[in-house]
Amino acid sequence: MWPDRRLIDLFGIETPIIQAPMAGVTDAELMIAAAKGGALASLPCAMLSPDKVREQVAAFRNAVKAPINLNFFSHQAVPSDPEIEARWRVRLSGYAEELGLMADYPAPAASRAPFDEAMCALVEELRPEVVSFHFGLPPEPLLARVEAAGALVLSSATIVREAIWLEQHGVDAIIAQGAEAGGHRGMFLTDDTAAQPGLFALLPQVVDAVKVPVIATGGIADGRGIAAAFALGAAGVQLGTVYMHCPEAKVSALARAAMQQAGDDSTVLTNIMTGRPARGIANRVMRELGPLSAEVPPFPHASGALGPLRAAAEQRGKVDFSFLWAGQAVRIGTGQPAEQLTRALAEAAQQRLKQLGGP
Question: What one-character-per-residue DSSP string does 130-183 give?
Fold first, then answer.
């Protein structure tokens, strides 16, 4: 029934749907349910220790016979700059005082590490069927080892030039990330946030520019969106925000309430939270200091000083400093368990594609 089966055949999955890797939201419970529904399950590894990755993969393998995607960041690590971070702390000092924190409150170090030798060795040990990267690709020697371990390689492109670069560097499929998508932008050949195209402009241009299968992501949350992506040439879709509504997602009660109250204009592109552009539901600190600011320390160091503020505010029932990553279709969510959601999405998309095909 699918007009393009390349992704299904490439990954050995039932439906051309990838459950997006979402740090802090996704663990084995959500992955297992999505895989049982026929999707490719994804584990976000950038904030996990090797032991935690092993634990999550083992739980998945013990529960379901299905392929798994391990996702990593591949940004260039930037050392901490004490001067920039001191200025950032001063900028946040009014919030600290308001929350009853000392001006020199201790802040944890940033925990988002790029793909490195240790994680590469872990891939060689665990042998996932798929490895995906965000912010480009890791250095060639590491990438070659991932491929030698038998993993298919994916990465995200936010402009056509990035898609062409990824194909030239040997990826097996490309994720076309429209500006509507929640979470961090996968930008690596551009830093121009103002020029990021939406999915329906980006997708057909990427499809025309490369030969490998293209996966659409950004603002897709139901069968209509999946069918539209296929009509524009996609071989599959990656869905994130809609899975955040599932009971298996590790979303706090405060964040769920923010999602339920959000509208189509509630998300913004911001660098305030981590130092890199990402889309999320606007909160107080995004509105008052940004949403985009030149004062923010480079990724990922901006997040350290916000951690204690976030914890103190959440104790008071507020999300003023919380990560609320979500795409523009945040309101489109049924709250179904992930297995049923995946099957319902696939069925609705096939019905819509059949209607579009005419009698």
Answer: EEEEESS---HHHHHHHHHTT-EEEEEESSHHHHHHHHHTT-SEEEEE-TT--E
